[in-house]
Fold these 2 entries.
Entry 1:
Amino acid sequence: MTNRCYLTTTNINDIHPSSFEEGFEPRKQLLATDEEAVPLLWLAMFRSEDIAEKVITGDDNEDFCYGSPLCTVEKALRQLDDALPKLQAILGAHNDIAGYVALFREAIANAGHTYVTIEYDEIENLYPDDRTTDMIELALLGWDQPDGIHYKVEPQSWSRPSLENIQQAIAEGKIQMPDFAAAIQGDGDKDSDEFALDFSEVEGEEVRMDGFELNSHGEVLMELTQIKLDEGAKLPPARMYLDELDYSERDQWNFTRMLGCGVHGSMGYGREVPWEKEDADFGYEIEMITGRGDDE
């Protein structure tokens, strides 16, 4: 029930391939995912000129405009390389940014498709009133025009279903669980009606967000990615999982906010990525929700 963003690839010059591309194959085209944030190196591949739009007409004949970063893999790799000095300046030279970039670059270079894009529609409600889109556009603009960035958000409150209420609605049969296994194997479309979740019967809870003010490109990136680095703190090594290193919860948090998760770190979403291995300790236990209301 967590809202995710997706790093996907396609041979079609169009955004949201997982929703609109016929024959989309998650096992091949879904490179990585993240929850409630956009990983930093994903953002480093794109510039403001790469934001593409797509207009979709809904069942009520209303037009909806989707916008997402999209560019060729070749261009994404070039822009990722260009961003390295700025990443080091933002995160500190004492961090092994080059190690992260090298592993991420390998995943993109071996994507096997012409284009790469970020699908972030599921996390648009992290900030109300399209502010998630505003900040993504500002984050991409800042790679080329970092000076004069200023973004202020007043305190906000809005309603959305909590995880507890969603789980309760599933147990009571108010939400019909789709066959996610089929979607992961490529037999379905994660955004098609077959796999959509209807939250209309779920009671909402008030969400409050403190206001904040961002005064630099680095601050915009840290807000969007949710990387948590105190002054002088270090990121965990880029080979944290590969070399089976000890790590803290904060280390794992920041590691994921840099790269996202592949199929092993996300418990089944997407494909294998160079920064993970199947038998690594990802620190989670799988808890099945049956939706049958079984007593614990």
Entry 2:
Amino acid sequence: MRGYAALPDHYDYLAAAESMRILSTHAPFGAPQEYDLYKEMTKISLEAQFVLELRNLSYSLLLDEPYREMITSYGMPLRIEEGDIDAFKEQVDPARLSDLKIEKIVSADKIMELTESSHKYTGNRLKIYSADDYEEFVVVLSLNDKEYVAGASLLQFGDDWRILTLSSLIADIPMAGGAILLDEYDVPVGELP
């Protein structure tokens, strides 16, 4: 969670509102960060968001159907039958992640054509967070003879890089933070550098 902790120090609520053309009090950053109370609330909100993304990433790697559908459908409830709770509990045991391997990390702009909206989105991230750089990555993971694709969006402040989300909008990896089975991802593994 260290990556999220510094973001409120760099976040510009008014720049975000201007770039999105909306004011919102329901987003994790729903207040000007000039006030210590709101900055602390934002920090807690960001840490909670990261924990949810990390849990979704873990679940997406561990769950089989029909439980995996809860991640791909952004948390839609799943009707269960007798015995499903025990099966779910066994599947999400974090000890099952012990063989997880990172096979590749590729900059999203190396595999996806950047559009005008991608450039605008990047520019907005730099402005909103007063960051020096912003980059999205595609991460190829392997676990139990299956390959997955996950995302990561990072901000650079000086020599320090911070995680913004476990997703990549540029590479079409969803905001929920879950991994996608590689054979279900639109970019064939052979095309990843």
